[in-house]
Amino acid sequence: MINFYTLVFCLLYIFDAYAQDLVIQSTTSTRDSGLYEYLLPQYPQRDKLSIKVVAVGTGQAIINAKNCDGDLLIVHDKKRELEFLDKGYGIKRHSLMYNDFVIVGPSSDPASINNSNSPEYAFLSIAETNSNFISRSDSSGTHSAEMSIWSKSSMNPLPFSGKWYFETGQGMGPSLNIAIAKNAYIFTDRSSWLKYKNKRNHRILYDNKDKLKNEYGIILVNYNRCKNMNKTNASDLYDWLVSDAAKRHINLYKIDGQQVFYTD
Hints:
Blueprint: H1 4-19, E1 21-26, H2 28-32, H3 35-39, E2 50-55, H4 58-66, E3 72-75, H5 78-86, E4 90-106, H6 119-128, E5 133-135, H7 141-152, E6 165-167, H8 172-181, E7 185-189, H9 190-195, E8 202-207, E9 213-221, H10 231-241, H11 244-252, E10 254-255, E11 258-259
Parallel strand pairs: 1-2, 1-3, 5-6, 5-7
Antiparallel strand pairs: 3-9, 4-7, 4-8, 4-9, 10-11
């Protein structure tokens, strides 16, 4: 029969092992780009920790973090990130890195967006020609950015859902698959497109790194609300990810020879 002290020791061991686990609630694009597989092994304490990345749309990642299902939050919707902080769900935020969004479509470019002078004009051209357009429609940071462009163009695509505007409710990878299958346009982050293999005859038809800047923020979840968090380990990983050493690694990461993310 296990005595009291042995039982206490076993429980403490289990608790300590659990406490070493860290969870990053993340947008899908950073995971799908391969960044974490490259970056996290560079962390000096990596061998002492089990770091799990949960990759979902930004909206769901924020909900998960609010529910204390993560130690760090890495997403790309600054407005919602600041709301998360203002409501006390996070301790601090840092602008981690950025890349850009692009509009991808068939090489034939039926809406002639290749020479558009703005993303709004490109979207309007797609709408006016009833060209197929795939939207994630999943509360992700990418979807929020897409809807912001539609709003600035004074065009509401939702009444045309199922006609030429198709809402997938899925992540970037599955949505790209649908865009290829339907010979459609799609709004995506550049890193996901670079990593995507099944491009067929699709290519980037509109890009503008100034107008379509895609910023990623990192937030330390409020460990005072979330009693299951390992405050020390979470804080240490956060501090390293915003350090100059981590920035150098982020800037060095490439896909097919192209730099993917940039740090300020």
